[in-house]
Write a structure and sequence with these properties.
Layout (H helix, E strand, L loop, with lengths): L11 H23 L23 H20 L3 H8 L1 H21 L13 H27 L13 H19 L12 H8 L7 H38 L1
């Protein structure tokens, strides 16, 4: 790599650290599936959808993305030019950070609202579940936010890249809503995907009308996707401000 291209210098210790972080986080996901055990809870887990339904959660998918990113970062410090291009590619850097921040914000925001399952520490399986929840929602978001600002860029983040951040959450949401509608029993990864959720908020007491409920969901869905774009906009604006000051 040329000096101009090599924004991250070789450092095998840092490479080993990030490889360990990425593989450890991935190992937790694998362990969660391998040692799957249904924990019935009428509020949070009323139906057993099977071990592989774990991958239907945006939390898990965004953390898999983080695992991939951390491993690429590790190989960047080992000297891989291709890995560096992935790690510092603005859409990759922006999407992975935004997605994991939303993951953490939704989980932590649900704690005071009673929408987040409590943590338990009374046995191997509850401990595994609790560790997975903490790593996914409380460790990875601040780590990726820190890396977002610490990893260098050769240029500012461009506004034209911001709409890309909303593409995957939109596709994920549509697939989740359709899957829930056609599955038996109905499987919705989050409580705000069933059409009855917003119907009960805005039309409480009225009989559910499915077509109207889906129409009611549409602006809420677009509003939710806009949150991803707004977070990415804030990250880009702050990064570019710091980048310009540092470049002076």
């Amino acid at each position: 790599m040329s000096g101009k291209q090599q924004l991250l210098s070789r450092n095998r210790w840092l490479g080993a650290l990030f490889l360990l972080l990425g593989l450890s986080a991935f190992a937790l996901i694998v362990m969660r599936v391998v040692f799957y055990e249904f924990a019935y809870d009428p509020q949070y887990y009323p139906v057993d959808y099977g071990r592989f339904n774990f991958f239907s959660y945006f939390t898990v998918q965004s953390n898999l993305y983080v695992c991939f990113y951390l491993c690429c970062l590790a190989f960047t410090f080992f000297g891989s030019d291709r890995a560096q291009r992935i790690v510092l590619h603005p859409p990759v850097k922006l999407t992975v950070t935004t997605y994991i921040l939303v993951t953490g914000a939704v989980y932590c925001g649900g704690i005071p609202l009673g929408m987040t399952p409590p943590l338990y520490w009374d046995g191997f399986h509850p401990v595994l579940l609790s560790v997975v929840q903490i790593v996914h929602h409380m460790v990875m978001p601040p780590l990726m936010l820190l890396l977002f600002f610490l990893l260098p860029q050769s240029r500012c983040l461009e506004k034209k890249q911001l709409p890309l951040v909303g593409v995957y959450p939109l596709v994920y949401s549509v697939v989740s809503i359709v899957r829930g509608a056609v599955s038996d029993p109905q499987i919705y990864p989050y409580p705000f995907y069933p059409p009855v959720f917003f119907w009960n908020i805005f039309c409480s007491g009225k009989p559910l009308q499915q077509p109207a409920a889906y129409l009611l969901m549409l602006p809420m869905l677009l509003l939710g996707i806009s949150v991803f774009v707004l977070i990415a906009l804030g990250l880009s604006a702050l990064y570019n401000l710091l980048w310009k000051k540092k470049d002076r």
